[in-house]
Amino acid sequence: MCSCHLHVPYLFGQGQIKRNAFRVALTMGYFFGAAVLMALICLFKVMDFNETFKVYVGGMKGMTDVAITLILAWSLGKMISGLGTAEFIVKFLQDMSFSASLVPAAIFLFGAFISFSTGSSWGTFAIMMPLAIPMAHAFGIPFYIAVGAVLSGGLFGDHCSPISDTTILSSTGAGCGLVEHIKTQLPYAAVNGTIAFIAYIIAGLTGSEAALGFAVIALIVVMAVLNRISAARLAGRE
Questions:
Q1: In the Cβ-directed half-sphere of 103, how many Cα atoms lie within 13 Å?
Q2: How far is CA 103 from the centre of its chain?
Q3: Is the N end or the C end of the chain the one with fewer CB atoms within 10 Å?
Q4: CA triple 120-88-121, angle to 5 deg
Q5: Do the Cβ atoms of 70 and 122 come closer than 8 Å?
Q6: In whole angstroms, what is the distance from residue 91 CA to residue 110 CA?
Q7: What is the pTM of this model?
Q8: What whole-number distance in Å separates Cα of residue 195 and Cα of residue 216?
Q9: CA–CA gap between residue 78 and residue 4 (Å, rounded)
């Protein structure tokens, strides 16, 4: 691990904090937060101690899967970076005379595909960031657009994926089947994904933040139109 130090202003002066100190502080914060919450649950008799402890252990089991996914994704991202995959893709696209304006949209689609296939948005971020940043640098695309494309694509694919933990937990919490839940959320995700895809094409062409304004306005207009259509259909049935 990196042995670097972070220069952080203390309350009464300047000092250095080791990176491991942040990890220890976060870990202890999570632990004591959970302990206080368990104590309050028992104090107000929401559940007894045994039930509370089972919930705590169940939450730890759920986070284990997330941690394993992130570790594997970080490992894959490190391997991709070490093999020079980004440089290979950039050279391949340049040889094909790939338009630089389409790079953000391509990053968005690739991120959505990986996220949908793996069911992990965080894993997609770890895989795509080492690819997207060099591509943005090589094609002269602003970094914030490339990073936004990775985040948007990862979240879009994650919400549409039937193997995503968020999809499974949402369907379980709502008390409906997994397929039924996907059917209800897929149209909304598809609308947002289509608008985002068009916005990233505009961002690639202009390199401007105005694409965000287009996306917001387009989303409001589309949702208003869909609401009117839905209201008209309900009125017709009555």
A1: 32
A2: 19
A3: C
A4: 10
A5: yes
A6: 17
A7: 0.66
A8: 9
A9: 19
